[in-house]
Write the structure tokens for this entry.
Amino acid sequence: MNRYIGRSQNKHFILFLLFVGYLVDYLDRMVMSVAVVSIKEEFNLDAAAVGAILSSFFLSYAIMQIPGGWLTDKLGSRKVLIWSIIVWSVFTVFTGFAWSLISLLVIRFLFGLGQGGYPSASQKGIADYYPRDERPKASAYLMSSNYFGMALAPLVAAPMILFMGWRNMFYVIGLLGILLTIAFWVYFKPKESTASNKALKENSVPLKELLANSGLWKITVMWFAAGIVNWGLSSWIPSYLMEARGMDLLSMGFYAALPGLSTGVAMLFSGWLLDRFFNNLEKYYAAFGMLMSGIFLYLMFTSTSIVAAMVYLNLCMIFKSFAFTVAFALPHKIMSKKVIGSAMGVINMGAQAAGFISPLVMGFIISLTGSFNGAFWFLIVCSGISIIAALSIKKDNQIAQSNDVDLLA
């Protein structure tokens, strides 16, 4: 094996490290969807309050996306990645000390600020280690970690809550951040030559030019609407399975993990499929995925069979991942490396704003109607919005492609 792998010069090892970082990111984030069932009983909360807890993280997370992208382009991926991990891990531990609804809202808000820098910094990390033509596929592989993290959360959280309580669960998983910080400190060291840094400064693109790019905002709207579906389901499925489908905690943990596992596997192939058969047809790939996602979502909540409902839920999430793949792969094709952190910050801001809105709106709909059906119809409408936005995307607003600097190409 190349003797430099220990010094972080192996791009595939770096991709693996970023992948593991995202797994821990999503584990720390998504266990709340399981823990909130116990928290709801302890603090005597209604569905609207639960929605507020689930949404408070996404509010700060969305706010941090553009500043996180700007800081990544300004300071480099390494510093932002390491500090992001430290901050979110601290507030994961603090979650276990929460004593009221207000304290939970504040802690989750600060937790979201910590995690807000990781998405842009991880995409910048790919740009630091991979040549342009390999970045879309590497990005798709990296983002599959999100779904594996979603799957891991209920599998880990359900038995831990059952045997040690929700507070101790947050203490334990928060300590994973120590190991992760050490790994990034030792291995993640992108090298940039003086000449390359000078070139990046001389060819820098003003942020206002980036924000004026219509293609960037169309991708953002597409992913915002798809994110409504994504975060609505991932936030409320544990409660739905227990309250509407009558599952116990351990059974729910198993069934809630399946969509993440199946979609994570699908994401590994989705990047290859997009690159091989849908090159320059990305918008149709995303639109078709959201169409099928909406159809299977409808079949899921109208089915009387729990087995059929779970099959439809898995298919809904798998097809929804088509839009996910496009949202993180296409920018690498139409944006310069020197602004990719900021561009990803804008796009991910849309998804995380959806993460704030979706659980909150669904919570109010469920409280108002006493049923999950209206909340799921809300998600189906958003699937349609995502389709329209995807079909409007054009790859004719590229930023500084000819001046791009591939540091390791």
The chain is about 80% helix and 0% strand. The chain has a mean pLDDT of 79. Residues 144 and 265 are 7 Å apart (CA to CA).
